[in-house]
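Lab notebook, bench 4. Still working through the backlog of constructs that have no structural model yet. Next entry is a single chain of 155 residues. Request: give me the structure tokens for it.
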Amino acid sequence: MRLLKMEQRWLEAALAGFAPEDGPGLAPRPGEVDWRASFERMADSSNGQAKVGMRAAVWLAGLAPMWLEGKPHTLIGLAPEERASLLERLLAHRSFAVRELVLLLKLQAAFALLGTATARARSGYDRDRPAPQESAASLRQLHVVSESSLEGGRS
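Model written out:
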């Protein structure tokens, strides 16, 4: 799904608002995450209804300063701290549809962040973990049922 230039700017501002650059913890470094490419990958593998929802989420967040606060600008006109605060307010909005569309953006931001190799490496998510040990007592043999044995039992 190709976004208009305006939508691309709104998308990047919204997704980066969930993980401001140079912040604490897993915050991305400047230019580290390609928010738009991640969004487009997800959209390209989605059905038509999901694509409509994804685009609606971008518009909702992009225009939120206008309809939520009465400000004469879009999300791009806010400082990064103001964007983060606005997104928090949208996640707690009284309308279920607003909350869910903004949550969809937050999930996309999380996928984009952990889909970036350098951020994922810093997270320690892929560190080696010992495989869980299964005891012999917890295992049991299952019998395979063939199709012919099922047909014999039908009336």
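Notes after review: Residues 5-126 form one domain. The two ends are 51 Å apart (CA to CA). Flag for follow-up if needed.
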